[in-house]
Amino acid sequence: MNPFIEIPGKLLLTGQYFFSVPDLLIARFKFTARIDMKNIKVDFMHIYPGQLYGSDYNWEGGLFTEVFPELHPDGEKIIYSFPVSHDLFITGLNSDTYNTVYAGSNFAGTIHSIDRNTRKTPGKIALIHYVRQDMYAAILYDKYRKVYYRFLLKGIPGATIRIQKEDKPISVIVMDENFNYLGETVIGTGKDWYWQNSFVTSEGLNIEYIEKDFDETTMTLKIFTLKKI
């Protein structure tokens, strides 16, 4: 679940379509709700990019169609990270037209959709396909250091059904405020880090760390800090 994003007078909440997006919906399904805090009215905005979804692409299973938003530093645009694209997609709050910028890993491979009819894609096939490929996740802006962090969940070639999605190595890609690549670091796997609970403070990028003796009454955070090398 994505966190709420606050803009003047409104809250934004981004969801997703949980199956391959059919052509009939690619220009109609809007995944971000805009909630007016004065009158609680809700309207919807922003659609899946046609170059990534729709057509004959098979992105079944729910993992491939997640949408990760971040408010642009100017406060007037939204930056979207989609799992299946090396690019970021940037659009205005009242627009469905995207500008794209490359924001990928120097080590990620080509991302392919599932080579199977969408109606004949068992969940385990979709999961194996997800685990085997490099997949992008959240994008976060650090206003203190004027950099972006983007998570990459690295593929495990040859993975079988015994391998879980939490086994994927997690890399943090760092870019400057113009999306120029600065570097990236593998921090562990999804069994070490619950990257979904991550946020930026003046100290750096905070990421939930999963203790061996897990206790649901507490949360451990570790801070990803930048170093010049």
User: In CATH terms, what is the architecture?
Assistant: 6 Propeller
> What would the principal axes of the Cα set say about the shape?
globular
Q: Which structural class best describes the helix and strand composition?
A: mainly beta
Number of strands: 15
At the first level of CATH, what is the class? Mainly Beta
Strand content: 35-45%
The run of helices and strands is EEEEEEEEHEEEEEEE
Task: List low-confidence stretches.
Answer: none
Quote the distance from N terminus to C terminus: 35 Å
Number of domains: 1
The value of Rg in angstroms is 18 Å
What share of residues is helical?
Answer: under 10%
Number of helices: 1
Report the sheet with the most strands, covering strand number, pairing sense and barrel closure.
Answer: 4 strands, antiparallel
Task: Provide the spatial order of strands within the biggest beta sheet.
Answer: 1-2-3-4
Mean pLDDT: 95
Would you tell me which CATH topology applies?
Neuraminidase
Task: Note down, in words, how this protein is organized.
The structure is a single chain. This protein has one helix and 15 strands; from the N terminus they run E-E-E-E-E-E-E-E-H-E-E-E-E-E-E-E. It has 229 residues and is mainly β. The protein has a single domain, classed as 6 Propeller (Neuraminidase), CATH 2.120.10. It has a four-stranded antiparallel β-sheet, with no helix packed on it. It has a four-stranded antiparallel β-sheet with strand order 5-6-7-8, with no helix packed on it. A four-stranded antiparallel β-sheet has the order 9-10-11-12, with no helix packed on it. A hairpin with a 5-residue loop joins strand 5 and strand 6 (77-81). The longest helix is centred in the middle third of the chain and has 10 residues, at 123-132. The chain is globular, with a radius of gyration of 18 Å. The two termini are 35 Å apart. The mean pLDDT is 95.
